Fold this protein.
Amino acid sequence: MKEIDNRLKDTIIRYIASGIEQQVDYEKFYLYSLITHSTAIEGSTVTEVENQLLFDEGIAAKGRSLMEQMMNVDLKNAYLFGFDRVKSNKPYTVEFLCELSAKVMRRTGSEYSTLGGTFDSSKGELRLCNVSAGIGGRSYLAFQKVPKATAEFCTWLNEALSAIDKNDIATCYRLSFEAHFRLVTIHPWVDGNGRATRLLMNMVQRQLGLIPSIVTKEEKGTYIQALIDSREQDDSTIIQDVMMEQHIENLENRILQYQQTANDTVCDTVNDTVKPNDTTSRLIAVIKEHPEYTYDEYAQALHIGRATVARHIKKLNGTIIQRIGSDKDGYWKFIK
């Protein structure tokens, strides 16, 4: 545990020193990444670039279901609501958590009629039925016990936050991971628990002055297995260590990507404002999502001219990317 904690501290120091957070609109795009990966874990196929167009321009993603896109829009609004709430430093309550869940499930939730009664997940109401963790999985807490368990969770979290040493970065992260694990294990709602509890985790991190951690879609299997192992072995350090490792890896990858693109300093003048590196970084992100796009499609996605796309790709070609196949039917491949 101590070795992981020390590696995290070292990575964060280098992450901050790299200047990566000084990029234009970096915080906004990092938020979009949080949202995209969180919904992807729940089955969404909407990409970061498609979410950018959806959030900023209102352009719907082609080939994606309305349900997927509404899931992402709801989660974006929930994150903005949650991050704004953090500024007030108000204590966590069951009522607030239900309000947060309502934001997450606003367009995709529905009303349920069960033996325990009628409740509406789009309103963030606590479940009145029992649920299990997938086919053959262990049942979560009986619904009759959920209100008390959720209230006790809020008491624990408020006390832990008031007592924690904010200078101990690793301990702060572990508290946020523990909060996520405890609440998702209670499973207060019939749906949206993963998204809501990861959002709560990021809120706690932001409250403690930390870089929010992203559970990436690529690590979905490892993440879910760690949750299962922690529940079955009654040992939350399992999920804490896994999430710590994933956060370190994600930050290391972002540092590496930034260093690679920073070597190619590009200055785009928009309304006489110089934005170094921004267009290259955004273009690389789109190429990763859509290596098959044409120059015109890249230009449309980024709202820049085709000539600008061609100029940037010319600099990237042969160093970071290479063309596979013809100009018409080929695609871009990243050079390892």
In short: The chain has a mean pLDDT of 90.
